[in-house]
């Protein structure tokens, strides 16, 4: 089987386990899936509709949608299948390079039911990164008087992948004077060390060229290499010594860029070249190397860019002080970042009603809100409240979700619309805020119209009454004109429009008296002599049409 086929098989098994776990968690209102990283946009994550026992029609009728916690939407809901799919390609190393287990969270909102289901998706690592050294050209300066068995720490390779796909082993090649030893660090990391296996003689060889290779556990394995140049030095009597084996410093996250956080010091009693000390970073993460800078001459550690407590609250640096003869000493610098209140609470309306019936019972849900604060600890505690004097109250629904419900029955005749203000402010941190330092807060307004059920019913009754009056008026008009048409067969009538057309075909004058039961109909002799004989006007109105038998 090819390497691509084996990787695809592992992805299929990971997706199968994710679906099985999701079926078990759906019963508790929480879904869990897993998906390998670097999957293309639109890749299947889980069957949300099946796991929640929903119908496809409910996706549109009930306003079902996916909401992510952050600003980036990593997942979406397929409208035709009800599947949870990836909204974009996900890079695990970019999102979770500081954590071992990468989990992304989102919520499934069923607006029609005011329900919230939490979804957790674990991003499975794949071997898409090779181990690499920060510097591919390394230099070691070793005295020819160094005893065999002496160890020299080497720079570690970095691999953003996790688990078996991360860094697994080191190899050394190039010279019989040296060998390689690998020590396990406190966190389980591997630390390579260069071991002097045979005594050096500067007169025989002033330089030694070595190759250090790092490999991961992927299939196939990925490797990274670094070249080591060993310079053999004359005798150096003293090694540099740090003033402290471990330095600790606490800084707030708003410390200005360019500030000097701490200055380390190492001394060497030797003179000239052997007494000159240079400082360097021997073990540091990629993120820390982008944030801190060590001055090789003075030992000052300065800040390169702004700190963010939410991104990282602790950094560990391993320093080395080396003299001109190759002797060195190591020390650690532990930097702790303290949180400050630099984020205001965020309020978002997940679902809300635009109007509500005045006969809605007490406890009816009118809005579903999500409140969060990106700060940690006391600075991240949020207290929510509604303004006084409105017939609504706030209920906590699910973690950071709140529901706005009616506290009593509504009366549209008294108030037809409410502007509901939600205030979110820091909890304990707001009470303990220093004078002149405002506590973070945020407000959100909801406009709710009260629909009057009684007004709708009254409008319906008025409409029926208007129709009845119109019908009664039409009957009265027909009865008034019936005297002039008495004795005419029914077959001669062709409706209102037909009578109008008939009358328009002759010149006529119609005058109605104030009494609706009396009327006069006149025809001019020139226009109707061929059809109807001219007769003098009688006391009573004449018939419009004669009987067929008389004709």
Structure description:
Pfam families: Cadherin (PF00028), Cadherin_2 (PF08266), Cadherin_C_2 (PF16492). One of its GO terms (biological process) is homophilic cell adhesion via plasma membrane adhesion molecules. The protein is α+β, with helices and mostly antiparallel strands and 551 residues long. The chain has nine helices and 33 strands. The strands form ten sheets. It has a four-stranded mixed sheet with strand order 1-7-6-3. It has a four-stranded mixed sheet with strand order 8-14-13-10, with no helix packed on it. Strand 4 and strand 5 form a beta hairpin. The longest helix is centred in the C-terminal third of the chain and has 29 residues. It is elongated. The termini are far apart.
CATH architecture of the domain at 132-233: Sandwich
Order of strands side by side in the largest beta sheet? 1-7-6-3
Bin the strand percentage.
Answer: 35-45%
Shape by Cα distribution: elongated
Ranges where pLDDT stays below 50 over 5 or more residues in a row are: 22-28, 432-440, 490-551
User: What oligomeric state do these chains adopt?
Assistant: single chain
Helix content: 10-25%
CATH class of the domain at 132-233: Mainly Beta
CATH superfamily of the domain at 132-233: Cadherins
What structural class do you assign from the helix and strand content? Answer: alpha+beta
**Strand segment count:** 33
The average pLDDT value, as a whole number, equals 76
CA gyration radius, whole angstroms: 45 Å
Keywords: Calcium, Cell adhesion, Glycoprotein, Membrane, Repeat, Signal, Transmembrane, Transmembrane helix
Domain Cadherin: 74-133, 134-242, 243-347, 355-424
InterPro entries: Cadherin-like_dom, Cadherin-like_sf, Cadherin_C, Cadherin_CS, Cadherin_N, Protocadherin/Cadherin-CA
Subcellular location: Membrane
């Amino acid at each position: 089987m090819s390497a691509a086929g084996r990787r695809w098989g592992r992805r299929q098994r990971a997706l199968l386990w994710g679906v099985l776990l999701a079926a078990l968690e759906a019963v508790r209102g929480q879904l869990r899936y897993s998906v390998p990283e670097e999957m293309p946009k639109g890749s299947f994550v889980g069957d949300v509709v099946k796991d929640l026992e929903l119908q496809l029609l409910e996706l549109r009728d009930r306003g079902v949608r996916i909401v992510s916690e952050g600003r980036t939407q990593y997942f979406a809901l397929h409208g035709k299948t009800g599947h949870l799919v990836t909204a974009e390609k996900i890079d695990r190393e970019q999102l979770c390079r500081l954590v071992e287990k990468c989990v992304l969270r989102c919520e499934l909102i069923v607006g029609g039911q005011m329900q919230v289901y939490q979804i957790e998706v674990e991003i499975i690592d794949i071997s898409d990164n090779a181990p690499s050294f920060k510097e591919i050209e390394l230099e070691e300066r070793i005295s020819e008087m160094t005893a065999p068995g002496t160890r020299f720490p080497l720079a570690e390779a970095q691999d953003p992948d996790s688990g078996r796909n991360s860094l697994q082993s080191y190899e050394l090649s190039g010279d019989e004077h040296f060998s390689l030893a690998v020590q396990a660090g406190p966190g389980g990391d591997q630390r390579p060390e260069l071991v002097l296996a045979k005594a050096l003689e500067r007169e025989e060889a002033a330089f030694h060229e070595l190759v250090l290779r790092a490999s991961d556990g992927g299939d196939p394995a990925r490797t990274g290499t670094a070249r080591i140049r060993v310079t053999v030095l004359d005798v150096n009597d003293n090694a540099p010594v740090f003033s402290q084996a471990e330095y600790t410093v606490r800084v707030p996250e708003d410390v200005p860029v360019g500030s000097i956080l701490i200055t380390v010091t190492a001394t060497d009693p030797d003179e000239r070249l052997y007494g000159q000390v240079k400082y360097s970073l021997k073990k540091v993460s990629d993120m820390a190397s982008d944030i801190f800078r060590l001055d090789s001459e003075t030992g000052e550690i300065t800040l390169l860019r702004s700190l963010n407590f939410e991104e990282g609250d602790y950094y560990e640096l391993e320093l080395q002080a080396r003299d001109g003869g190759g002797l060195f000493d190591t020390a650690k610098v532990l930097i702790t970042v303290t949180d400050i209140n630099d984020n205001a609470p965020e309020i978002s309306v997940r679902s809300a009603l635009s109007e509500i019936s005045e006969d809605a019972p007490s406890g009816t849900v009118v809005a579903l809100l999500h409140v969060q604060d990106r700060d940690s600890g006391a600075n991240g505690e949020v207290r929510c409240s509604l303004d006084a004097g409105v017939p609504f109250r706030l209920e906590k629904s699910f973690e950071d979700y709140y529901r706005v419900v009616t506290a009593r029955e509504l009366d549209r005749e008294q108030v037809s619309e409410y502007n509901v203000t939600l205030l979110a402010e820091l909890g304990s941190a707001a009470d303990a805020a220093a004078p002149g330092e405002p506590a973070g807060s945020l407000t959100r307004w909801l406009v709710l119209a009260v629909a009057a059920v009684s007004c709708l019913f009254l409008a319906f009754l008025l409409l029926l009454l208007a129709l009845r009056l119109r019908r009664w008026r039409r009957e009265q008009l027909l009865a008034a004109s019936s005297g002039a048409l008495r004795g005419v067969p029914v077959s001669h009538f062709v409706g209102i429009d037909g009578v109008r057309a008939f009358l328009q075909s002759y010149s006529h004058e119609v005058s109605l008296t104030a009494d609706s039961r009396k009327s006069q109909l006149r025809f001019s002799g020139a226009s109707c002599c061929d059809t109807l004989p001219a007769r003098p006007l009688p006391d009573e109105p004449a018939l419009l049409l004669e009987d067929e038998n008389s004709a």
